[in-house]
Amino acid sequence: MMRHLKIYPAEGTWVVRANGAVIGESNAALELIQRDYPFVIYFPREDIAAAVLEPSDRTLICDDRGAGEFYHISSPEGLLQNAAYSLTAPSEAAAQVQGYLAFDAGKVTVERV
Fold first, then answer.
1. Which run of H or E residues covers position 50?
2. What is the pTM of this model?
3. Of 32, 34, 37, 36, whose CA–CA distance to 14 is shortest?
């Protein structure tokens, strides 16, 4: 079976900002590369401010990564719909990121600092 995922430790310190406000920072993030898509940084859940996450009704289903759930992010400027997600039933190849959170790069800023 061909593996379509690669997961590496994300070197350095990574932050995620929602409308400019830092909602998470981690030195233990993971970088996931899937096929020819841009890489995605996954943050340990404990490194993200839980108070800003609101469960969404939207679910995630991916042939490569498995299944998961989305979250809205509350910010002073309003709710960012389905801006974060977590794999709750990952594929074998993505098992390493179970319990981590990833973010929609079009809705929040994820960067190494």
1. none
2. 0.93
3. 32
E-only strand ranges, the chain: 5-9, 14-18, 21-26, 30-34, 40-44, 53-62, 66-75, 78-90, 100-103, 109-112
- Rounded CA separation 84/53 (Å): 8
Strand partners, 13: none
Owner of token pair 């995922």 = 5
- 17 Cβ contact list (under 8 Å, min separation 6): 23, 108, 109, 110, 111
Tens-digit pLDDT profile for residues 44-87: 999 999 999 999 999 999 989 999 999 999 988 899 999 999 99
